[in-house]
Structure formats: structure tokens, C-alpha cells
């Protein structure tokens, strides 16, 4: 509670239909409080070992999912490592792993293993921050999916497309993804074929498509001492393969 208060999150203790759970409510001024779609279920390590031994673990998870069918549930297992070390090994490590895998696959219940109060507090704070920022991040994703901002991002390393400006740089950034392709090589190819569809058209009509880009000159630097080389046969073949193969497992 103290760590949450210090992190500027409001929290309160109240009785729930299931003990040892944490839920969130979003409060916006002049609006009705809205329950968030996340739930943390804290289970003591010894409690988990006993429930697995008694074949009750999956039943408890099923019951929890039945009470909260629309919630994203994360199981917070506290002190399992210490309890397992001190146990008589009626439950094996394999039994624990199988129980957690079944909970995740059958009931979409993820888990976190925590061994100290500090771990528990840090994890809860992490969830608080993530849930608090949820609407903002969702808005950013929706904004990025619009036509005008499809390639836009706040990161300086991403290419922003605005009013038709930026496609050339985006094309060059795409070419740079090939191993050993420098900016100079990408600029040389984009100068010859300013848009991807122009390159694809040329590949379809060329008599020797694999070597279409081989002899494109690449200027290594500016000034009177600048040297030139060519794109080369190897890269030309890789680009040809990328744009013409119909095999999704093709290795470039």
C-alpha cells in the first residue's frame, strides 16, 4: 500500500467475491467510474503446491474464470521457490510447470513468480502504470492505422509520411534492411527506381531480372575524390528473389 501511494496511485482495501485479488477502476472527473478489464490473483506458493497435490488447482482457476469471464487474469504466485525448496517433493517441478501451462492454454491465465514483497509491489505498480496509460496507447495505435499517419511514429528513427512527402526516404529505409546495404546503395537504387512498383514492373519485363540491379553505379562519397562501385550481382539476386518469390519460407 505504501509503495502504491508513493507511486501516486490511489488504492483501497475492500471485500471482494474472491479473496486475494486486485482489480482496477478508472475514475475520470464528471464521469462514472469504470471497471478495468484486468485482474491479479495472488496465490501463496504453499497454497499452490497443496492445490496441485490435491488436484484442485485447475478447478480453482476454472472457478475464477467463471466468476470473471471477461477479465484478463494474471496469477501472481508468491514465494513458490522457497516453498518448493522446503517441501517434501510430493509435487514435482514438472507438475508445477504442467499446471501453469494448462492454466495458460485452457483458461488464458498467465502467471508471474514473485519471491519478495518488493517484487510484488513492483509488479503491481507496473500493472498500474500499464493500465493507466492504456487509453493513450490505444489512441496512438488507432492514429497510426489511419491513412495519413500509417508510417508515422513519435520515434525519430521512423519515417513520417505527410502530404505525399516521405515515400522516397521510406523506400530507402526499406532497402537498407537488406544486410550490407548502406545508405549510398539504397540511394542509388531509389534514384534508378524511385518507387517499389517501378522496380517490380522492371523485374517482370527484364530479359535478365536477376541481374537487373547489378550494374547500377553507387557513389561512395561526395567531392572530387569520390569513387564509384556497383550494386553487384549478389544483392541484385536477393532483391529479385524478395520481390518475385511465391514461397513464404524462401531464404534470402
From TrEMBL:
Protein's GO biological process: double-strand break repair; mitotic intra-S DNA damage checkpoint signaling; replication fork processing; resolution of meiotic recombination intermediates
UniProtKB keywords: DNA damage, DNA recombination, DNA repair, Endonuclease, Hydrolase, Magnesium, Meiosis, Metal-binding, Nuclease, Nucleus
Cellular-component GO terms for this entry: Holliday junction resolvase complex; nucleus
Sections of the chain in a coiled coil: none
Broad class of where this protein is predominantly found: nucleus
Compartments reported by the entry: Nucleus
Residue intervals of the ERCC4 domain: 4-124
Required co-factors: Mg(2+)
InterPro entries xref list: EME1/EME2_C, ERCC4_domain, Mms4/EME1/EME2
Signal peptide start and end residues: none
GO molecular function terms attached to this record: crossover junction DNA endonuclease activity; DNA binding; metal ion binding
Entry similarity comment: Belongs to the EME1/MMS4 family.
PANTHER family: CROSSOVER JUNCTION ENDONUCLEASE MMS4, EME1 PROTEIN
Descriptive protein name: ERCC4 domain-containing protein
Organismal lineage: Eukaryota, Metazoa, Ecdysozoa, Arthropoda, Hexapoda
Amino acid at each position: 500500500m505504501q509503495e502504491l501511494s508513493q507511486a501516486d496511485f490511489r488504492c483501497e482495501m475492500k471485500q471482494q467475491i474472491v479473496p486475494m485479488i486486485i482489480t482496477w477502476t478508472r475514475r475520470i472527473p464528471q464521469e462514472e467510474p469504470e471497471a478495468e478489464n484486468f485482474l491479479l490473483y495472488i496465490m501463496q506458493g504453499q497454497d499452490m503446491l497443496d492445490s496441485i497435490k490435491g488436484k484442485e488447482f485447475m478447478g480453482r482457476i476454472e472457478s475464477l474464470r467463471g466468476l470473471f469471464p471477461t477479465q484478463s487474469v494474471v496469477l501472481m504466485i508468491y514465494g513458490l521457490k522457497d516453498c518448493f525448496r522446503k517441501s517434501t517433493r510430493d509435487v514435482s517441478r514438472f507438475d508445477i510447470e504442467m499446471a501453469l501451462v494448462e492454466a495458460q492454454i485452457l483458461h488464458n491465465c498467465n502467471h508471474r513468480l514473485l519471491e519478495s514483497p518488493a517484487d510484488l509491489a513492483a509488479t503491481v505498480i507496473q500493472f498500474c502504470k500499464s493500465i493507466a496509460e492504456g487509453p493513450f496507447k490505444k489512441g496512438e495505435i488507432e492514429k497510426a492505422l489511419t491513412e495519413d499517419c500509417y508510417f508515422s511514429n513519435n520515434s525519430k528513427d521512423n519515417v513520417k509520411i505527410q502530404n505525399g512527402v516521405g515515400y522516397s526516404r521510406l523506400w530507402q529505409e526499406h532497402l537498407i534492411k537488406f544486410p550490407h546495404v548502406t545508405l549510398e546503395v539504397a540511394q542509388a537504387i531509389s534514384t534508378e527506381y524511385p518507387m517499389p512498383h517501378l522496380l517490380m514492373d522492371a523485374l517482370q519485363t527484364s530479359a535478365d531480372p536477376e541481374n537487373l540491379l547489378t550494374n547500377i553505379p553507387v557513389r561512395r562519397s561526395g567531392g572530387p575524390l569520390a569513387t564509384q562501385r556497383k550494386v553487384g550481382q549478389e544483392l541484385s539476386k536477393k532483391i529479385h528473389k524478395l520481390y518475385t518469390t511465391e514461397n513464404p519460407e524462401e531464404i534470402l
